[in-house]
């Protein structure tokens, strides 16, 4: 009889996991492959979902080892918080610099541009787009780092009475099984959206702005060249607006598809 009970419980755990996966698949856009883990509680698809540690270094700890584990858990949690603070400071720095430069470029690009000023705007917009790319990659690096850290924290919590980070994730995402220490989140509450998604879309929109103003400036460089080659074109302002609009729509569409 005990063997059949173990088999039944073992079969029920995959069902719960599958149910959680199906629930995640229905959420958008946070549960897409790029953002499955973006929440304070880490990735719910990690092996830390199990309710008990059956084998490994966290099995059968004595009191002294449990105390040491708690100290490590607290310290590691503080490190994760410190990393989040560094991420906020990075966002403030890049956000302030890039938005200020973009505002200056839009102010400079108003009206007609000379070939020299158009080249300056085009170069600055390309440089700003490159900085946006590095900023985006830094966000991805922090995302992967947080995923690893909270996966470890979730595994340590499996040896503790309460799994707070995992319950936080389950509450926010309405994930099955329901949180253990709080009631499930009401269905009428708005769906949770990760802060990382907001960060990434802010960077994408900034990059689209730089590409747009660069395309506008490119119209003032391209028009004289094509006109000198015998082509009939509208005014440089019109050409710049057309190129800028095409670049803006294309970049936002590309970012939307990739997200």
UniProtKB/TrEMBL annotation:
Signal peptide: none annotated. It comes from the Archaea. The keyword Transmembrane applies. The chain crosses the membrane at residues 93-111, 117-136, 201-226, 238-257. Pfam families: 8xMP. Residues 23-38 have a biased composition (Basic and acidic residues). Residues 7-20 have a biased composition (Polar residues). Residues 1-64 are annotated as: Disordered. Keywords: Membrane, Transmembrane, Transmembrane helix. This is Uncharacterized protein. It comes from Halobaculum saliterrae.
């Amino acid at each position: 009889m005990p063997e059949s009970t173990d088999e039944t419980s073992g079969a029920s755990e995959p069902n719960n996991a599958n149910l959680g996966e199906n629930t995640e698949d229905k959420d958008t856009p946070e549960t897409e492959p790029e953002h499955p883990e973006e929440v304070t509680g880490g990735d719910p698809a990690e092996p830390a979902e199990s309710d008990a540690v059956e084998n490994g270094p966290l099995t059968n700890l004595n009191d002294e080892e449990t105390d040491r584990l708690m100290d490590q858990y607290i310290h590691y949690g503080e490190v994760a918080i410190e990393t989040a603070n560094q991420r906020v400071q990075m966002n403030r720095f890049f956000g302030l610099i890039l938005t200020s430069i973009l505002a200056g470029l839009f102010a400079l690009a108003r009206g007609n541009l000379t070939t020299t000023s158009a080249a300056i705007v085009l170069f600055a917009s390309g440089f700003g787009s490159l900085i946006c790319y590095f900023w985006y990659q830094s966000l991805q690096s922090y995302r992967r780092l947080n995923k690893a850290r909270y996966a470890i924290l979730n595994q340590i919590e499996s040896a503790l009475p309460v799994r707070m980070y995992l319950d936080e994730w389950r509450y926010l995402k309405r994930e099955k099984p329901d949180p253990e220490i709080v009631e499930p989140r009401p269905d009428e509450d708005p769906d949770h959206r990760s802060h990382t998604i907001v960060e990434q879309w802010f960077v994408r929109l900034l990059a689209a702005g730089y590409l747009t103003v660069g395309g506008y400036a490119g119209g003032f460089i391209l028009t004289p060249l094509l006109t000198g080659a015998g082509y009939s074109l509208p005014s440089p302002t019109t050409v710049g607006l057309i190129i800028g609009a095409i670049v803006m729509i294309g970049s936002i569409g590309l970012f939307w598809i990739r997200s």
